[in-house]
From TrEMBL:
Name by which UniProt lists this protein: Glycosyl hydrolase
Organism: Labilibaculum euxinus
Recorded coiled-coil stretches: none
Domain of life: Bacteria
Membrane-spanning residues: none
Amino acid sequence: MLLGFIFPIASSAQEKLYSNEFPLGDVQLLDGPFKHARDLNVEVLLKYDVDRLLAPYRKEAGLPEKAKSYPNWEGLDGHVGGHYLTAMAINYAATGNAECKKRMDYMISELKACQEANNQKYPDWGVGYVGGVPHSAALWSKIKAGEVGAIWEAWAPYYNIHKMYAGLRDAWLYTGDIDAKNIFLQFCDWAITVTEGLSDKQMEDMLANEYGGMNEVLADAFQISGNKKYLTAAKRYSHKMFLDPLSQGIDMLDNKHANTQIPKFIGFERIAELDTDQKYGKAGSFFWETVTTNRSLAFGGNSRREHFPAKESCIDFVNVNDGPESCNSYNMLKLTEDLFRVNPAGKYADYYERTIFNHILSSQHPEHGGYVYFTPARPRHYRVYSAPNEAMWCCVGSGMENHGKYNQFIYTHSEDSLFLNLFIASELDWKEKGLKIKQETNFPYEEQTKLTISEGASKFKLLVRYPAWVNKGALKISVNGKIVDGTLLPSSYVCIDRKWKKGDVVQVTLPMRNTIEHLPNVPEYIAFMHGPILLGAKTGTEDLKGLIADDGRWGQSSSGKFLPIDKAPILINDDIQNIGNKLVPVEGKPLNFTLNVKMVNPVELTLEPFSKIHDARYMMYWLALSNSGYKAYTDSLANIEKEKLALEKRTIDQVAPGEQQPETDHGMLSENSNKGNNLNEFFREAKNDGFFSYNLATNSETDLSLRVRYWGAEWGSRKFDIYIDDEKLLTEDNTGRWNQSMFKDVVYSIPNSMVSGKDHVWVKFQALPGSTAGAVYYIRLIRGTVAKK
């Protein structure tokens, strides 16, 4: 059931925080994929139990239990509740859905009761607090007392509560709810008082822990209230470790956790917008440039294993299953909106379009509406989906919001200018001008869009986006059948300044072409684009383990087997940059193509929009080589095989840790040790001062080395000693050593004094305090030593 729009106060977003955006209710989506996604998302949202989402808040406020908390990701109790409140607000604002309004009102009344209970129960630290962080009383009491190290005793507590800050802000922003505004500002006061006794150094130390967009919401509080104390607090909650170098154009993002950083820069940009502080603005814009230009994939997403890769680590995109994270794109779109508001440049809209058409739209299952966490770029892998009331991941929370905001950036305005940013079927009610404008399009399945003034008359400038993916001079615009002349350049806006009246029609022709994009820093892998649309190909449905995730802690990762990279299709062509011309359209199926290209490991595949591929393995990136490049590739494989044979000849003894028979054969001894499997390779490691050791034959030889295989992307501290018998060979430290998701073989020379006169030696891996020894995947005792440099 839909209701009319009834708001306690004026609903125009420009009177609140975002001066260039139209109220969501004034931009109606028309039939098409985005309306379908939005409507399906509302259905999914209403399957969640609100009392379970609110349970952490009642628990921490000492109120009686109404329902059990969700079990999954319980260390972040409360984070999805904030996202859900935002989702209720935006979907009520956009659609007038009565149930969304009812749930939003209920949540606000419950949160108000929690805040009042905290005021009474915790006067020393909790006045204004409304969070669901587990053991809030113990944590925040310590923080207020200056024990900032306590922040590491909980799972990202500021990240957690930031979601409720945003939810309360959005309930006011999108629906005008006064209670939400008051709760929000009191909560912001709490953020100030709980840290007012901390030094700048203590604040900086604490901000090393993921804190979401705390600086953003405090900047918002300044704009809402006009009270400068919130702007001061926003700067105090800004992590200088990233603000300082990025504001100077220094990229130090390698191997940093991606979604920890992106919200910081949203906050930096908001501060710059409200305070005209150039330092904050430079940091925000430079961050956006380096992430979108150097660190993003063809579909707009970024990060692997949740971290920004270094240049040499970008091959991880091909190797791992935990590719770009949906939350990252959610936050990059927020940053893009903020940057565009200050500087309405075409490049921002180009990125925005690419990301919502490819990543965000594909992150929702089109039938059951489940949300996606990781989108692997690994050839012939797949992604998994959440189910309602299970798997309460961060990307479930941001997914709840994503599909309700498709109408937010289609049109923006500045004074008497209207920007047409996105080609999505919709209707704008520009109340200030007394105009209604209808956009009719089936883009990207047709190469045009049409705007009609359906009501009213007014003089204004219409700025039509000239997308970067349209060739120079190829865009055509007509008004009432008359071609618009002028200089037309890609990634810009074409301005049409005139008096508009009912019945005026603007026709925009958008010629699309096939191009390729190279994987960042791994140019031999390419993706196919048709205009802004990433084309992918279904490759099979075998072993889609965990396709719909359960409540397991790691259910967000696709756990089916990895198919060999070298057995995936390889494209061979001597003009790879123009290989897009080899795509052959499938008759009667728009945006479907076959590949007319020489192929190794050939299979019959059809390319289609990546956002349409679900419940299947797929190809997003393809290894594409010239004929000479393919010969070098096969020569390299032959050399690898030759090296393997040579290594076997040098090997005196070897053991495969984690495999029962080899470990038994080599008399393994161990303490506080465990084994496991990664990519079908067994390993062993030891923790808590533990060890493991094996008895290896030397053949009574000298001039020997120890060759050990490790995984190049381990988490946590990896410091350990290696012993030969009872004598220490060396101390090894693999902590953050490679940051590459591939196996790494390290060779250690053994002094002859350790093996002379012995036909066997014990090789022992001993964990150092607080560290892990290993994981070790393979051990060889080999002839020859490492040459000294």
